Amino acid sequence: MSYQSLVLVKQVPDTANISGDVMKPDGTVNRGKLPAIFNPEDKVALELALQLRERFGGSVKVVTMGPPKASELLRECLYLGADEAFLVSDRKFAGADTLATSYVLAETINSIGPFDVIFAGRQAIDGDTAQVGPQTAEKLGIPQVTYTQEIIDAKKDTLTIKRKIDGGYEIIKAKTPLLITVIKDAAVPRPFKAKRVMAYKNAKTLMELEAMAEENSLLWSDQLKDEYVAKKLFIETLTIDDLNVEVERCGLHGSPTKVHKVESVVLGSSDHVQIEPTKEGLGILVDKLMEDHIFG
Ligand SMILES: Cc1cc2nc3c(=O)[nH]c(=O)nc-3n(C[C@H](O)[C@H](O)[C@H](O)COP(=O)(O)OP(=O)(O)OC[C@H]3O[C@@H](n4cnc5c(N)ncnc54)[C@H](O)[C@@H]3O)c2cc1C
Fold first, then answer.
1. Which residues of the chain have pLDDT under 70?
2. In three state form, how does the secondary structure of 87-117 look?
3. What domains are defined for the chain?
4. How close is the Cα of 102 to the center of ligand 1, in Å?
5. How far is the CA of 13 from the centre of ligand 1 (A)?
6. pTM for the complete prediction?
7. Rounded to whole angstroms, how far apart are CA atoms 49 and 234?
């Protein structure tokens, strides 16, 4: 049996490489200046989906809900080996918390599916909630396996999965369709293949084709779209009008959780104590840590 897979991917601010001018004078982070990157665990999830296709056949599609510039992330997915990419983008989806995000993703899956296996990263490095995968599975009414470390085997509609747990792992058998969330050490993402980069670097969304047509009066976006669809270089964009969703459950309106403020914790230099690398120094350190109830 071959497997039709979908990978949920997210573009996130590169919060791991904060330096130079993204730091504001008050020591906080200017998130808008952070470069946007491929959420690390989503890249591993895509790698696991590509490996499942190589082992058992089938297809790998990817979807992201985000602003128009998230098309960059989808091109990266095509470079890595995805067969098709979808951008879910609409102003009415902006400001979504995990509830609203998973609602729109679940409806997107209902509209572009069905799929046997839906892959998600365990967590996004910006919101850090690890909620979207499980919430999406709930809304689809399908089983979920979180903290996936390995897909050991796949027979007909049953996957055997190794799942990380505290102090070890467990082996689970789960029936498709199912959603799995993937941890970072489940696989090493493959590098881009130059041939695929050359093939897909011109893949475009409708908005990008319209921008091309605006710059060149000889081009018509409709004609361009037909051309790109024929060349399998068209990245389909799904707006609120393309999905069976209630607007009041989308975006900021549909989000009971509002991110009030994002603040970086900045440790003041007065907080540090110089410890000599000696036996006595170590004694002082242990006493200090016990005094501060950090251990003991
Ligand atoms: C600092 C900060 C704190 C936040 N705190 C909360 C909070 O406490 N509660 C809350 O509800 N929202 C919160 N949000 C908003 C939340 O980030 C967004 O709702 C976001 O779209 C999804 O949540 P997440 O980033 O935690 O993703 P996670 O739930 O950690 O993502 C898990 C996986 O779901 C998939 N996924 C997530 N988002 C998308 C997407 N847009 N498109 C495709 N796949 C996706 C990816 O595979 C990802 O690896 C916060 C945002 C920020 C920046």
1. 16-32, 259, 261-271, 296
2. EECCHHHCCCCHHHHHHHHHHHHHHHCCCCE
3. 3-249 (3.40.50.620)
4. 9
5. 12
6. 0.88
7. 22
